[in-house]
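Protein modeling request. Please complete all fields; requests missing the sequence field cannot be processed.
Requester role: graduate student
Desired output: 3D structure, token encoding
Chains: 1
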Amino acid sequence: MALILTGCVSPKFSGDPLPVEVLAQNPKVLVINDKETRDGFQSAIEGWMDTNKINYVVKQEGVEHNPEELTIEYVGYWNWDLALFLSRAEIEAFYKGQRVSKVSYEAPSTLHTGKFGDAAERINLMLEIMFGKLSLADASKKL
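Delivered output (143 residues):
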């Protein structure tokens, strides 16, 4: 019974990838740096964008942006449970004034040790889902 219960509360992803129509337009990506989220989150996003040769620019929160750019906003929360871990994160994408994608990650504060994984790796998986490179199921298998 304990194995069943811990499996039900393991870390998980949810959300939807960017629509194919948006990706086909290959828009420039604007990443909004969330100053209240740990710097490692922004670094992970930029690293993923560089690795995947995505044309992007970073701007601070509160700046006006062009709705023709694919705008990425994020937030991440860390908790402490014997070690610091990424407990919850969201990455949203907006294009032409509409939210076109949202991917979430959640690692409940339970006895499940899967919550202690590398935060940058989880952020990368979220972006893989968002940009249609991995399905939710395939990303979850990598946790």
